[in-house]
């Protein structure tokens, strides 16, 4: 492919313009703004036919995975309020509400 040349050289003013960062996207589960790491989570697991994705913190996704099976997640679908009725998830969301968006911690294993 041929290179495209600009007459007069390159203008540095275009590269020095400050890029404004888009506002942080809120987490689907806890509602806090997302930080540097965003996980695109399937509320309905892909193995159950889910196609939609939502932004989440990694710690929030780990909490969902630890507290629900794929079948339970499929039943809840996009209903966040239904997930928050689980006492473990509600306790987690209340706890993490005051944490930094990039906060991370180990999550307990699946309880089965």
What does this structure look like?
This is HNH endonuclease. Residues 11-20 have a biased composition (Acidic residues). Residues 1-26 are annotated as: Disordered. This protein is mainly alpha-helical and 112 residues long. It has one domain (24-111). The chain has helices at residues 12-16, 58-67, 70-76, 80-84, 87-96; strands at residues 39-41, 54-56. A two-stranded antiparallel sheet has the order 1-2. Helix 2 runs antiparallel to helix 5 (87-96). The radius of gyration is 20 Å and the shape is globular.
Supply database-style keywords:
mainly alpha, 5 helices, HNH endonuclease, single chain
Identify the overall geometry: globular
Number of helices: 5
Q: Would you count the extended β strands for me?
A: 2
Distance between the termini: 58 Å
Structural class: mainly alpha
How many domains in all? Answer: 1
Rg, nearest Å: 20 Å
Average pLDDT over all residues? 83
Helix content: 25-40%
Question: What's the structural blueprint in terms of helices and strands?
Answer:
Elements: H1 12-16, E1 39-41, E2 54-56, H2 58-67, H3 70-76, H4 80-84, H5 87-96
Antiparallel strand pairs: 1-2
